Amino acid sequence: MSNQYYLVSQLPGFSVGDDKAVPITYEYYYDLCSRFLSKKEMKILDGLSLEPPLEDSKTGSTFVDNWNYKEKSLRLALAQIRALRMKKKFSAGNESIAPDAVQAARTASGMDSPLAAEQYLNQYRLSVIESMRPTDGFSLDAVFSYGLKLRLASRMKKFDEAKGLASYKKIYNRILEDQ
Question: Which pTM does this prediction carry?
Answer without folding.
Answer: 0.84
